[in-house]
């Protein structure tokens, strides 16, 4: 899904799940990129 237009379309709640997932997986993603 394309999340980039969420703020422009005044639908910030549509990308809250993505932001939550990114915050929850931040540490494991950081380790994976090293």
From TrEMBL:
A GO BP entry is:
carbohydrate metabolic process
InterPro entries from the entry?
A: 6hp_glycosidase-like_sf
Q: What is this protein called?
A: CAZy families GH95 protein
